[in-house]
Structure formats: structure tokens, C-alpha cells
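User: Some background: our group keeps a shared notebook of sequences we're curious about, and every so often someone picks one and asks for a predicted structure to add to the entry. Today it's my turn. The entry only has the sequence so far, pasted here. Could you supply the structure so I can complete it?
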Amino acid sequence: MKYKYILLSAGRGIVIYLEMEELLDSKVNSSDVKIADKLYLRVSDGIFPKDMATPFEYWIVGGIKSLSDRIREEREGLLICYHIISLEFNPAHFQEEGLYYAVQGWIGQRYGFDIPQANIEFDRKNNRYKFNFPT
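Assistant: Of course. Here's the predicted structure to add to the notebook entry:
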């Protein structure tokens, strides 16, 4: 399933297209990232830019982990592996932090979850969004 995350404010925007699939009771590969008990992330090769300031896992895993209890409750103890198939964005307007909310949006759409409203402000001085993550 492909999900489109859009953040627009002050004439500037971020758009992230995230295509993922949910694999249930799949074999776990050695390269899969463990998120929580029975919850893993698999990423197709070459998806993320090599020059990201923070490893992609930080944002993607964080977004999934924040919803992990709800996911495991929905899937009643099944082993789940999320496979990121593709990721598209405009490098000129990309902010890594947007991956957190893109993956949450995908999960919300997949399971019909209400996702908490993101606390994001546009910093005109630095021409960037300021993401305020839940603690």
C-alpha cells in the first residue's frame, strides 16, 4: 500500500510517498530491524539516501514504536514485519523528521487508527519545519 504524507505551511511543503507492506508471521531476516517484541522492519536496498544526517531507522522505527502497543493489540500477538518497498520525495524539500509522521500515517490508514495530531511549526528564519515529538 502506498501512502502520501503532505505537510504544507507558509508556502513550503514536504511530500513523502511511502510504499510498505505488512508481512504477517513471516520469517525474520538477519538484516531486519527489531522494533519491539514480534515487530520488525525490513527495508529494500537503496531506498534511503546515504547522506542522511540521522539514520533512517531512528525516524521510521520511532514512528512505528510509538504505535506498537496498538498494532500488537490489533494483530493479537502475530509476528509482524513491515517491509518498506519504496520511498519518494523531493530532495530540495525533504526533512528526515517527516518519515516519523509518514510511517504513522501509513499505519493509521492500514489499521483505521486515529493518529495523534502532529505538533509541527514552520521556522521562517531557518526555512525549515520544527517537529515537536511526543515524549
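Suggested note for the entry: The two ends are 29 Å apart (CA to CA). Residues 2-132 form a domain with the Ribosomal Protein S5; domain 2 fold (CATH 3.30.230).
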